[in-house]
């Protein structure tokens, strides 16, 4: 039984070696054609939505302006959560209702920045209704974030809604809209985000139902017309080879049925449906390319590569699985391992197998990209390709142990290659030190 079916790549080893000749490893490489193709399929699946469906890309997933420009070109909006992300919008010339500002524990100056940009502001807390009005002025359009509490189970990454710090309770939501209207708001949106990396489409359909029902109740209780519901992000991606991507036709049809049964049946005006997915939009179309630097055999077998957890934190932080390919080399026909990656492999007999912990060079034992992973025959100097790094990859980078963050490269639709962020240098890492203050 081969536990790890191979996954395809949009490039081969000689192509990568050519890129590496001018941009040394490690680097993340993103596939423009695949990002565009997915964006069309995803947004196209919701063509039934009155007023037009829009995904507001969660900028935090991959905040590189070259990628954001591609997504803008494909008709996406942007979900920002910080002042820096709003500044990125300013620099890209993106303004107005193409931006949703969804933040929490928000400082006044970020509300002011969002107001100046004309962004849709999505409030996380009842006290922020008055705070926003006082500090930045109540906008005409305001969105509130609902936390459904025990109505909803939640999932592993985001936790159960009752434990989550985000959003308004149901009672607070009614109070919040009433108060926002008193303070001058005239247009209203409703938001929730209760899942992360979820592959079951039913989960999102159920979320849509909860929000649609609230829209009806808000109309009945307060006479408020909600003009859009924002289902949040959280659509998962198949990190593991045996997993399957969410079927957008099933997802879209499920949400459409709920819309018909709840919004249309209640005779309400059309309500737009929007989302703010990040991971599913770019995650599968990015790869971290790294070179094997060193092999080590002690109580376990280690492949040391030139990337570290500073370039991709998910395995170390969440124990997340990221598939690894050795381009140009195939896995053995018959795996010497038993069990699935979840169960953890077990060696069968004493035959030497190509099973490795793939490690970076941080002084942290969780600086590992894979544990007990079966790989083809690998030599020092080989390239490894770590899959699904197009979201929460480079973006989560850090400089611990003085590691400069790596470069980002775009594989253009015409197959040319463009450096879209250079690697940091040691000087970059040291640049905030105030040498004059050193005694
Ligand atoms: C992180 C986040 C998203 C995007 O989540 P994905 O899992 O990348 O789709 C959307 N909205 C909010 C409020 C978030 O915090």
UniProtKB/TrEMBL annotation:
Pathway: Amino-acid biosynthesis; L-lysine biosynthesis via DAP pathway; L-lysine from DL-2,6-diaminopimelate: step 1/1. Its cofactor is pyridoxal 5'-phosphate. It is an enzyme of class 4 (lyase). Its EC number is 4.1.1.20. GO terms for molecular function: diaminopimelate decarboxylase activity; pyridoxal phosphate binding. Keywords: Amino-acid biosynthesis, Decarboxylase, Lyase, Lysine biosynthesis, Pyridoxal phosphate. InterPro entries: Ala_racemase/Decarboxylase_C, DAP_deCOOHase_LysA, De-COase2_CS, De-COase2_N, De-COase2_pyr-phos_BS, Orn/DAP/Arg_de-COase, Orn_de-COase, PLP-binding_barrel. The active site is at 363 (proton donor). Substrate binds at residues 279, 314, 318, 364. Residues 34-282 form the Orn/DAP/Arg decarboxylase 2 N-terminal domain. It catalyses: meso-2,6-diaminopimelate + H(+) = L-lysine + CO2. Homodimer. Belongs to the Orn/Lys/Arg decarboxylase class-II family. LysA subfamily. Specifically catalyzes the decarboxylation of meso-diaminopimelate (meso-DAP) to L-lysine. This is Diaminopimelate decarboxylase. It comes from Alkalispirochaeta sphaeroplastigenens.
């Amino acid at each position: 039984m081969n536990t790890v079916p191979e996954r395809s790549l949009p490039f081969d080893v000689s192509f990568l070696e050519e890129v590496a000749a001018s941009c040394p490893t490690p680097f993340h490489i993103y596939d423009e054609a695949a990002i565009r193709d997915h964006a069309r399929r995803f947004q196209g699946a919701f063509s039934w939505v009155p007023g037009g469906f829009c995904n507001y890309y969660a900028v935090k997933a991959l905040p590189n302006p070259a990628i954001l420009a591609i997504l803008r070109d494909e008709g996406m909006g942007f979900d920002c959560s910080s002042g820096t992300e709003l500044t990125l919008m300013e620099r890209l010339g993106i303004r107005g209702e193409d931006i949703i500002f969804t933040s929490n524990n928000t400082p006044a100056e970020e509300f002011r920045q969002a107001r100046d940009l004309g962004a849709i502001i999505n409030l996380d807390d009842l006290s922020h209704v008055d705070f926003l009005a006082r500090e930045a002025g109540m906008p005409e359009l305001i969105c509130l974030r609902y936390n459904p509490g025990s109505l909803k189970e939640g999932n592993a990454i985001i936790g159960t809604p009752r434990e989550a710090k985000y959003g308004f309770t149901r009672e607070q939501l009614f109070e919040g809209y009433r108060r926002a209207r008193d303070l001058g708001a005239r247009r209203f949106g409703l938001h929730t985000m209760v899942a992360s990396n979820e592959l079951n489409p039913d989960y999102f359909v159920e979320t849509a139902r909860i929000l649609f029902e609230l829209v009806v109740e808000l109309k009945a209780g307060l006479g408020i017309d909600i003009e859009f519901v924002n289902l949040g992000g959280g659509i998962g991606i198949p990190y593991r080879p045996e997993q399957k991507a969410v079927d957008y036709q099933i997802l879209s049809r499920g949400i459409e049925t709920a819309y018909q049964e709840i919004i249309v049946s209640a005779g309400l005006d059309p309500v737009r449906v929007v989302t703010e997915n990040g991971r599913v939009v770019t995650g599968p179309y990015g790869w971290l390319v790294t070179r094997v630097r060193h092999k080590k055999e002690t109580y376990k077998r280690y492949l040391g590569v030139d990337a570290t957890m500073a370039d991709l934190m998910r395995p170390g932080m969440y124990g997340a699985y990221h598939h690894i390919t050795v381009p140009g080399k195939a896995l053995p026909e018959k795996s010497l391992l038993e069990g699935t990656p979840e169960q953890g492999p077990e060696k069968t007999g004493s035959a030497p197998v190509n099973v490795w912990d793939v490690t970076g060079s941080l002084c942290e034992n969780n600086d590992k990209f894979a544990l007990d992973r079966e790989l083809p025959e690998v030599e020092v100097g080989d390239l490894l390709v770590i899959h699904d790094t197009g979201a929460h990859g480079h973006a989560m980078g850090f400089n611990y142990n003085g590691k400069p963050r790596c470069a980002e490269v775009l594989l253009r639709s015409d197959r040319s290659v463009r450096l879209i962020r250079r690697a940091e240098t040691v000087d970059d890492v040291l640049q905030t030190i105030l040498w004059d203050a050193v005694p």
